[in-house]
Amino acid sequence: MTSSSYSSVYPLVVSGRETPRVLSIAGSDPSGGAGIQADLKSIAAQGGYGMAAVTALTAQNTLGVSAVHVPPVEFLRQQLEAISTDIAIDAVKIGMLGDAAVIDEVRGWLEAVRPAVVVLDPVMVATSGDRLLRGSAEQALRALLPLADLITPNLPELAMLLGEPEAADWESALNQGKRLAAECGTTVLVKGGHLAGTECPDALVNTSGLLRQDVIEVAGPRIETKNSHGTGCSLSSALATVQARTGDWEASLREVKPWLLQALLHSDSLDVGKGNGPVHHFHHHQVLRPGEFAAALWKEAAPELAAIHKLSFIDGLQSGDLPEAAFNYYLAQDAIYLNGYSRVLARAGALAPTEEEQLFWAKASQQCLEVESELHRNWLSTREASPVTGPVTKSYVDHLLASSAAGSYAVVLAAILPCYWLYAEVGQQLHASFVDAGAPAAHPYANWLRTYADEEFAAATRNAINFTDAAAAAASEGERASMLEAFAQSCRYETAFFDAPRLFA
Ligand SMILES: Nc1ncnc2c1ncn2[C@@H]1O[C@H](COP(=O)(O)OP(=O)(O)OP(=O)(O)O)[C@@H](O)[C@H]1O
Ligand SMILES: Cc1ncc(COP(=O)(O)O)c(N)n1
After folding, report:
1. 426 pLDDT above the threshold of 70
2. What is the CATH number of the domain that holds 31?
3. Keywords assigned by UniProt (predicted)?
4. Can you say whether residue 288 is alpha, beta or left, with left for phi > 0 and alpha for psi between -120 and 50 degrees?
5. Confidence (pLDDT) at 328
6. Is ligand 1 within 6 A of the CB of residue 318?
7. Ligand nearest to the CA of 123
């Protein structure tokens, strides 16, 4: 087969493609953790369109490789021909090649088609120790390296390609990377996976001035896990995909490495096999069951609710022993708070994805202002209370406004929710104990305690919880982390708000 017998009907241009068309030329791992199976998952996880031309079939699982079958090379030629005569390829990832005939075939195809992005993972030995490349093919593999834009050897492979002993530390690994990069004139990704220690860095190495500097290191923590099967395959195919979009190796590595880290961190949840399991390529697409996120939020709120019930303010409100000045301070601060809260509720309405939610938050915002004026009309007009905004009120409202400033509906809802949820819970318990005590009319705060029985507020609280739960299901993982943070902070302010009269009245 000569290189000219391959042809491409499309010009192969790189960069800027929203959904890069990425071809993996690699072996099959039927257990799904490595090879083309891992590649297709990684490409899809990065938003690419994945294709695969199979070089070799393996019989393997998480414990090891039990057999390898390399089909006639003619059939690989037909696969590559079928793909490249029809489809524009934005990037290619090359993995297990098996033997020298396969390597020659792939070289001929690369020379003819010249894909814009070529990432070569020089797979030689599996994690399990089984050989995936014939010893006699090592020289042919070396000759293939200059056709790649990026080579991603692990440390044993790096050493083997150079004919040197394996690097024992990061510094010598980087030096080996520089030697290989200079030798084959391409960029080398030196990977820290095979070293010990708490860190697991990777570095792009190119000594010809192609990169911003000869060595660009991207740091990362080492995850304590045995589920590292296919990390090399996953990394190289993800890099090929992102590179086709960004056209910048450093940006691509900085995008892919945190994704792989999370894929390693979530690997246990897959529960695949008894040996070195696969990583979780789609950890970021985990589907939340209805109520699941609300339950996680309640975990944050429960200790704050317990703390609120231990406050002297709540105790005094329940027993009637609360000094009037403390109660007046609380009411005055509540009125100030509700004014700010109303604005944040209106913001939630502005960001709401459905009309039902928009209406709910708009009404809530209006009701808030009505309650504020009711506080002034019926509760504060006859009392002595300073109209100055207290420090807790100020911080709480500032936190709510800051949470709404980022423009994420989910995060605003998480910040808003504790005021509904904790207030409803506290109110329900206070009202229940007031009723248990025979609802004494002589109780100095009887009229206030009766307001806690408001069924409309309980229903609104249930709605607010459900909307927040649904918003979390539609949110990204990063947004959900921000939701938890905003919610936890608001919970702490709820406690502080009930405690403020003791400190500032
Ligand atoms: N325990 C770990 N914690 C964090 N990152 C890791 C860990 N192990 C490997 N990695 C990362 O996974 C990628 C692959 O690295 P590694 O050096 O293990 O390559 P490999 O041996 O080719 O992979 P494979 O296990 O698929 O053969 C690198 O980005 C590396 O930093
Ligand atoms: C088909 C195929 N390709 C590559 C690897 C290397 O992956 P790992 O080193 O994680 O076993 C593999 N085991 N199988």
Report:
1. yes
2. 3.40.1190.20
3. Kinase, Thiamine biosynthesis, Transferase
4. beta
5. 95
6. no
7. 2
Residues 254 and 356 reside in one and the same domain = no
Sheet hosting strand 215-218, strand order edge to edge: 64-69, 49-61, 21-28, 91-94, 118-120, 150-151, 187-191, 202-205, 215-218
Instruction: Find out whether the beta carbon of 349 lies less than 6 Å from any atom of ligand 2.
Output: no
- What average pLDDT does the segment 180-194 reach? 97
92-132 pLDDT per residue, tens: 999 999 999 999 999 999 999 999 999 999 999 887 888 89
Q: Is residue 2 part of a domain?
A: no
Q: Write out the residue range of the structural domain in which residue 60 sits.
A: 20-282
pLDDT tens digits, one per residue of 462-490: 999 999 999 999 998 889 999 999 999 99
Is residue 154 within 6 Å of ligand 1 at its C-beta? yes
Helices (H), 352-390: 355-374
Ligand 1: residue whose CA is nearest its atom 23:
232
**Residues 171 and 315 placed together within one structural domain of the fold:** no
From the list 84, 171, 184, 178, the residue with the least C-alpha distance to 141 is 184
Helices 292-309 and 409-436, interaxial angle, to 10°?
Answer: 50
- Say if residue 420 is in the same domain as residue 299: yes
Is the beta carbon of 191 within 6 A of some atom in ligand 1?
A: yes
- Does residue 332 carry a pLDDT above 70? yes
Residue 3 falls inside a structural domain:
no
pLDDT value of residue 286: 73
Determine the residue of 228, 233, 280 to mutate for testing ligand 1's pocket, defined as the one with the most ligand atoms within 8 A of the Cβ atom: 228
Write the DSSP symbol of residue 125. Answer: B
Q: Which of 191, 202, 254, 265 to mutate to test the pocket of ligand 1 (most atoms within 8 A of CB)?
A: 191
Instruction: With a cut of 60, say whether residue 11 has pLDDT above it.
Output: no
Mark which of 254, 282, 310 sits at the end of a domain.
282
Token pair in block for residue 263: 């894929």
Gap from CA of 429 to ligand 2 centroid (Å): 59
Inside any domain, residue 5: no
Both 346 and 450 in one domain: the answer is yes
Q: What is the tally of structural domains in the chain?
A: 2
Residues 382 and 237 occupy one common structural domain: no
Q: What is the pTM of this model?
A: 0.69
**How far apart are the CA of 373 and the centre of ligand 2, in A?**
68
In the listed set 235, 256, 282, which residue is the last one of a domain according to the structure? Answer: 282
